[in-house]
Amino acid sequence: MSIFEYNGSALVAMVGKNCFAIASDRRLGVQLQTIATDFQRISKVHDRLFIGLSGLATDAQTLHQRLMFRHKLYQLREERDMKPETFASLVSALLYEKRFGPYFCQPVIAGLSDDDKPFICTTDSIGAKELAKDFVVAGTAGDSLYGACEAMFKPDMEPEELFETLSQALLASVDRDCLSGWGGHIYIVTPTEVKECTLKGRMD
């Protein structure tokens, strides 16, 4: 078993019309044993920027703390929030710095730029960025998420339709992966508000 699959995870971000959604499952496991069913993989950097960390849970928590520290320093120095593109470069640089003993994480970054255009991006464990205009996925349920998102995605979705599409894609995908699941966590972000929802899924 790969170290990336040790805790199990499912992460996906998708863009809509001047909005985006980011979702994850809630299971924390040690291989096939479930440890917690309310694990938080997604965190808010600021109101228009979110990051989800899949992979080894301990590395994800360490990386999250380092990224928040760097972002707070940036806020103090620049007196403004970081743009999503800048934050993606920060994540990439931080991971590449540790390439000889990498964090076993695959981040998913989603944000709104100054002109309310959604930005989504993922990187591998050593910081190689992959930008997308529709959706990005990560985690052990990644393969089935690709299929579900490919089938359900439509351009320029409104927030309500985006929520429905992403919820269905996530719940359908984690049912096909025994290392992730136990419901989901989803954030819908528009220029004016952030909605946070908890999805109920199969509890087996």
UniProtKB/TrEMBL annotation:
The keyword Nucleus applies. It comes from the Eukaryota. Its main location: cytoplasm. InterPro entries: Ntn_hydrolases_N, Proteasome_beta_3, Proteasome_bsu_CS, Proteasome_sua/b, Proteasome_suB-type. GO terms for cellular component: cytoplasm; nucleus; proteasome core complex, beta-subunit complex. Transmembrane segments: none annotated. It holds the Pfam family Proteasome. Keywords: Cytoplasm, Nucleus, Proteasome. Gene3D superfamilies: Glutamine Phosphoribosylpyrophosphate, subunit 1, domain 1. It is found in: Cytoplasm; Nucleus. GO terms for biological process: proteasome-mediated ubiquitin-dependent protein catabolic process. The keyword Cytoplasm applies. Non-catalytic component of the proteasome, a multicatalytic proteinase complex which is characterized by its ability to cleave peptides with Arg, Phe, Tyr, Leu, and Glu adjacent to the leaving group at neutral or slightly basic pH. The proteasome has an ATP-dependent proteolytic activity. Belongs to the peptidase T1B family. Component of the proteasome complex. This is Proteasome subunit beta.
